[in-house]
Design brief:
641 residues, alpha+beta, PH-domain like, six-stranded antiparallel β-sheet
């Protein structure tokens, strides 16, 4: 069989051969490997026809040099020189890498992952960078860096294959590439050159490509719910949940608890917050704090690329909105950074929550004790100026003039009570000084005048300007001022530590007191002293009526002479004011007025005479008996003595 040619169909198996293993050449002894005896059989159990050498023969062969036996060996011819461009022709190292490209002004991406292949040509140490072309990418792709030797640093060195490894960054012309993997040839070549390779890393996913892949997938749509917005409008229209809430802002400067009303419109799930205006709150009326719109739970939970300057939030940006289930009594709701505590609701809201959600709604007490308002403390009167003017400086920042009683001023215009007084002093030279005290009824001011006396050594004239005088030893905060009732005959009046004793008064004072019997009762000291001084009986008089005097027949002429003499003595007539009043009635500037107008003129000038006596005085001035009174004749008659 062995002589048969080894052709297909002529191969036969030897049934006597059953073992085809190769004999081992090592044995183990005590855990150590030792050389075994030389094998005597080969594969299949066939004996090996070789000469087995003994140990002595092996030693002799080891100690005998071949050159002594066989002679000098022929030198082997050197190998032929193979240039690098031929030895490394078409041998290229390929690395997989990527770089990040920043994307500006794009709502879908901030950066882009650009995968590239780095090819290193061993024949001339040149490098090229190529980006795989992606169909319909919209970006220029292909060869990024042409094949060339790339500079490594500023010292003139270039990138070499020894500088390249996986999971490292390389910089080509300022662009950073991260190497993630290499092919099988590159890995075997670097390992054969004794370079230890790093472990490979994964290529990061491109967010834009991921978005394109997701958008290219088959779209899955959810079946819309059976809830109809039109049905919601028809069933929930004009149904509003009303919650009473407070905004607690007391942790801020000048903060307070302000009441508000939160309305939840069930027709479109919108919310509005209205302010509850309280009287004397010091705030302008601004009823709507937050307008009606859908209220998000977290306004800031949106993408940073959302153009919030030009667009409003919608359901595409915010998915979580306030619902009736999120509102409850005693719960704090955050609305755009404001904390609203819901403390009560109306009856419809309670019924809605009990029927729809099965939730009972109570109430929370948020009333707080009202703080005591600070009281304005008025400082003590310092004595400068009048008390009314000083009080205005305390009541307002810009002092206003004190209000005057204009009705009293109009009713008592030109009404002055005159009293005669002497100074009560410890100095003897001041006891005989005579003064005229004038009390103005229009504003309750007192002025003091001292008639000049020749050769007295004292300059007379105005002793005190018109001012209000307080009583001695009175409370400065609640001062008591002198009134006409205090000016009785014999009373002492203290004016700025000067004591004056009332000695007399004119007839007009008594008439004024009798006319105002409600202010001065008949048993008052002032009225009794004046009546006793002038010999008048106590009787009741009616206000604003002339005094009725009992007369006898033929005494009218005597009374006229007495009135003329008394007017001349007291210098009663004020010619300047009388002249102005006469000209006011003399419309045609003829110098004459009617008798009825003269009567009104005398009443206007407060002439203290009766009507019949006044008619007698006017008749004395009517020399022509035509009812026209000449002004100069009237003045001449009054000043006649």
């Amino acid at each position: 069989m062995s002589s048969l040619p080894f052709l297909p169909g002529n191969s036969f198996t030897d049934p006597t051969k059953t073992k085809f293993h190769l004999c081992h050449s090592l044995n183990y002894k005590n855990g150590y490997s030792v050389p075994a005896a030389y094998p005597t059989v080969g594969i299949g159990g066939e004996p090996l026809k070789v000469n087995q050498l003994s140990e002595a023969e092996l030693d002799s062969l080891a100690n005998q040099k071949p050159t002594l036996t066989y002679g000098q060996a022929q030198p082997q011819p050197p190998e032929d020189f193979i240039p690098a461009h031929k030895a490394f022709d078409k041998k290229v190292l390929m690395f997989k890498a990527y770089y990040k490209q920043t994307v500006h002004e794009s709502p879908n991406e901030h950066y882009r992952i650009r995968p590239v292949n780095i090819y290193y040509y061993l024949e001339d140490d040149s490098i090229s960078v190529v980006e795989p072309v992606v169909e319909n990418s919209g970006m220029p792709q292909g060869k990024l860096i042409k094949r060339q030797r790339l500079p490594k640093d500023d010292q003139g060195s270039h990138w070499h294959w020894k500088d390249l490894n996986m999971s490292m960054n390389v910089t080509f012309y300022g662009k950073v590439f991260h190497i993630v993997d290499c092919d099988k040839f590159t890995q075997d070549y670097l390992e054969s050159e004794g370079i230890e390779l790093n472990g490979p890393s994964s290529m990061p996913a491109d967010p834009y490509n991921h978005h394109r892949v997701e958008s290219a997938k088959l779209q899955m749509f959810k079946t819309p719910s059976d809830f109809d917005k039109l049905k919601q409008f028809l069933t929930m229209d004009r149904k509003v949940l009303r919650f009473y809430c407070v905004w607690d802002d007391r942790d801020q400067m000048f903060g307070e608890m302000r009441p508000f009303v939160l309305h939840y419109y069930l027709v479109d799930d919108t919310v509005e917050v209205r302010e509850v205006r309280t009287p004397n709150s010091g705030r302008d009326p601004f009823p709507v704090l937050i307008g009606r719109h859908k209220l998000p739970k977290n306004r800031d939970n949106v993408e940073s690329s959302f153009p919030a300057v030009v667009m409003e939030l919608s359901e595409h940006e915010i998915k979580d909105w306030f619902t009736p289930a999120d509102l409850d009594i005693g719960k704090t709701v955050y609305v755009y950074g404001r904390r609203f505590l819901l403390y009560d609701c109306d009856d419809f809201t309670r019924a809605y929550y009990a029927h729809r959600l099965g939730r009972g709604m109570g109430s929370v007490d948020v009333n707080q004790p009202h703080p005591e308002l600070p009281k304005m403390e008025i400082p003590l009167y310092n004595g400068f100026g009048s008390m009314e003017d000083s009080m205005q400086n305390c009541l307002s920042l810009i002092p206003q003039p004190p209000k005057k009683d204009y009705i009293k001023m109009m009713e008592n215009d030109h009404k002055i009570l005159r009293f005669e007084a002497t100074m009560d002093s410890v100095h003897p030279e001041d006891n005989n000084r005579r003064f005229i005290i004038s009390y103005r009824l229009s504003d309750d001011m007192i002025s003091i005048y001292e008639p000049p006396v020749r050769n007295s050594g004292i300059i007379g004239g105005k002793f005190l300007e018109a001012t209000r005088i307080t009583k001695p030893d009175c409370d400065p905060e609640n001062p008591e001022f002198y009134t006409p009732a205090d000016f009785a005959i014999g009373n002492i009046i203290v004016v700025f530590k000067h004591r004056f004793q009332i000695t007399d008064a004119d007839e007009y004072v008594l008439r004024y007191m009798e006319a105002h019997a409600d202010t001065f009762p008949p048993q008052s000291q002032a009225l009794q002293s004046f009546r006793a001084r002038h010999g008048r009986q106590t009787e009741d008089v009616v206000k604003n009526t002339p005094v009725q005097i009992q007369r006898t027949g033929g005494d009218l002429s005597d009374l006229v002479q007495e009135v003329r003499f008394q007017l001349q003595k007291d210098n009663y007539m004020n010619h300047s004011s009388l002249r102005e009043a006469f000209l006011w009635y003399d419309k045609d500037r003829s110098g004459k007025i009617d008798k009825s107008e003269v009567r009104n003129l005398c009443r206007r000038c407060n002439l203290p005479v009766d009507d019949d006596l006044l008619d007698a005085l006017i008749a004395e001035c009517d020399h022509n008996k035509d009812g026209q009174i000449d002004y100069f004749e009237f003045i001449k008659f009054l000043n006649w003595s």
